[in-house]
Amino acid sequence: MHALEVKNLSKRFGDVQAVDDASFVVPEGSIFGLIGRNGAGKTTTIRMMMNIYLPDSGEVILRGAKVGQDFRSSVGYLPEERGLYKKMKIIDLLMFFAEIKGKKGDNVKKRALDFLEKFSLTDRQNSKLEDLSKGNQQKVQFIATILHDPEFLVLDEPFTGLDPINIDILKDIILQLKKAGKVIIFSTHLMDFAEKMCDHIAMIDNGKIILSGSLKELKGQHARRNISIKYEGDISFLNDLPMVEKVTDFGNATGVRVKEPGQSQELLKLLVGKGVIVKSFNANEISLQEIFIEHAGSEEKEEKKSEVQYV
Amino acid sequence: MFNFRVSAVLKRELRERIMTKSFIISTLALPLIMVLIFGFQYLMLSMEGDAGTKIFIASEIDGVTEGLREEFAQRSWVKNGDYTITYQTMSGVDFEKYLEQHKSDVLSGKVTGIMFVPAAVLQDKKISYYSKSTRNLNLEEKISRVINRVFIDNYFKDKNISSQDIRYARINVNFNTFKITKDEGIKKESGGNLALAYIFSFLLYISLLMMGGMVMNSVIEEKTNRVCEVILSSVSARELMTGKILGSALTGLLQMVVWLTPILVVIGFKLPVLPVGLVIQISTWQVLYFLLNFFIGLLTFVGLYATVGAIFNTPQEAQGAVAPLMMLIVIPFLITISLIKNPTNTLAEVASMIPFASIIVMPARMTLIDVPLWQFLLSFAINVGTILALFPFAGKIYRIGILRTGKKPQLKEVVKWLKMTH
């Protein structure tokens, strides 16, 4: 059974179809990435998963049942727009956010103090949030997200606005939580992070899911047609070959896309036959960025697309 | 509806509101300010500032001169030296000359005023008074009563009328007012309840405006802080709104209890701090009704203010929408003031049974007169009905509004929100 299943979600704001019939599954124990450009519909999808927006149609299934308050109580949510009560003391703030998830008492307080120690904020527990630096406020927000020991973690663009050190801290914690068996869902427009961390992904563009599944399999599927080569010699004849769809110069390597999976060996034979010195031939390497561009087109085309007003 | 999430939000609201300096200060300061205002008014009225008044009275009739001398000598304000009055009998012609000579004394302030009582006064009671300022009501009121007395005595002196008859003619009509109530029969009325009705309405008015504004700002703050999205991932918009409104309403109620306690202690134990003769009649039942009605009022208005807060991004943006909301509080308050002149006026009677106004007008009416039971029940039903009718809409606007940022929405858009599903 899937941990979470998103079925045919749609949401329209006025003239903008923010999410259009989106479906994907999040397997148990995985880190799941929802990937797309700004304004693609990531936040709206996540808000519908969190029951903050009601979908126009479609549903979200949690371990076989429709999501309700159970899901809310067992999820830790870090929205893209961070925000906490500025005038509250850190410790009171953390206790409040645990309490609305149904967790309170000395154990929670102890957990909160442990986390504050981990983030070296122990001496600030009685400070008001507004007296903390931006980075420290982010840490407090993250503690508030995980303090109630959620089974699910939903992080909307978790890495934006963090400095490299905090990004590393956050990555470590996410990986730890994964080891502890939690399901982690995050959205990002940063393909690098998604590629390094995710087991499964869904790509969203213009409100539509254009690709989803296990990252390994997706890469495998795409890699079979994409070959990265390093060579010495003349390969211009490739452009005239019927089996070659596209040749892209990446600088220190060249990408060649063939029409059919399985034509890579034929390509290697041809290259060797034409006297090209092949230094490296990698038929199993493709970046998520490349996959994304292949499916969603290049960035410039969409540049002028306006942000959804309600996001 | 009420669960641990609502209770967590409510507790946070209470802590946030009550444990602040501004709440403690405003709770303690308001009664103090009221006492100061009333005290200051009292002081201003009692400060007549007429000490050192010097008046010269010339009279053509010897008897009148003597009579005035005797009567004035008995007044406390002459005895204590506030007023110095000198008398002289002289003819009209002599007075003309005297006036000519002493004009400068009036101008320099040596003499406050010069009065001339002609012989004809025993026919028409017309006297002349010369001074720098002729609009001194205080002086006129004090002096004319004494003078009138002397004139009357002089007028009837030779007419063979008993002093008893004269005394009768002199008394003014005196209204003793009684209030007829259903259960307690006839009671002497002293204006105490009028003061109480005024205080009740004033506190109600101040508190509704204050708590309303407070909640609105707190909703706007949550919006600008972007904290509401995190909260909404655990708590539904309805739970958040319920917790916030209940929390603020309880805060307001607590504040009102603090304000009313000294008043009720004074009334209940008949403490001798009230002016003599001022009787206030109020039953425990009425106080409880007042508090319950106030709580309903808080829920209504705090709910409305929270909704307005959810629509806008800054308190400045919200100003335009708050104005009509304030009118819903201010106009009924002005109507209650009209009760002071006539507690049975129709405007107030109608206002006490229409939505929103009822909350403010009805308690004041109840303090002053016996409101028919049906009117009271109707008003109560209307107030509760208003809440029930209002909140589905308010909740929807709130739910959509708190997640919406960007440019200031127009009324048209807000109406559109009501049709949306999210």
What features would you describe in this structure?
The complex is a heterodimer of chains A (311) and B (422). Helices cover 32% and strands 28% of the residues of chain A. Chain A has 311 residues and is of the alpha/beta class. Chain A folds into two domains: 4-213, 3-Layer(aba) Sandwich (Rossmann fold), CATH 3.40.50.300; 225-282, Alpha-Beta Plaits, CATH 3.30.70. In chain A, β7 (152-156), α6 and β8 form a beta-alpha-beta unit. In chain A, α3 (90-99) packs across α4. In chain B, β5 and β6 form a beta hairpin. Chain B has helices spanning 4-18, 21-46, 62-74, 76-79, 92-108, 121-124, 137-157, 163-170, 192-225, 227-232, 237-268, 284-311, 315-341, 346-351, 357-368, 373-401, 411-419; strands spanning 53-59, 83-89, 113-117, 128-131, 178-181, 185-188. The radius of gyration of chain B is 32 Å and the shape is elongated. Chain B is of the alpha/beta class and 422 residues long. Chain B has two domains: 4-34 and 188-419, no CATH class; 53-170, D-Maltodextrin-Binding Protein, domain 2, CATH 3.40.190. The A-B interface holds A 11, 47, 50-54, 56, 72-73, 75, 77-79, 81-88, 92, 96-97, 99-102, 141, 144-145, 154, 309-310 and B 4-5, 8-9, 12, 15-16, 222, 225-236, 403-404, 406, 421-422.
The H-level CATH homologous superfamily of the largest domain in chain A, spelled out, is P-loop containing nucleotide triphosphate hydrolases
| Total beta strands of chain A | 14
CATH architecture of the largest domain in chain A: 3-Layer(aba) Sandwich
Task: Give me the secondary-structure category of chain A.
Answer: alpha/beta
Per the CATH scheme, the topology name of the largest domain in chain A is Rossmann fold
Side by side, the strands of the main sheet of chain B go: 2-1-3-4
Q: What is Rg of chain A?
A: 23 Å
Q: What fraction strand of chain B?
A: 5-15%
Q: What's the helix-strand series of chain A?
A: EEEHEEHEHHHEHEHEEHEEEHEH
What is the overall shape of chain A?
elongated
- The total count of strands of chain B amounts to 6
Tally of separate helices of chain A: 10
Q: What is the CATH first-level class name of the largest domain in chain A?
A: Alpha Beta
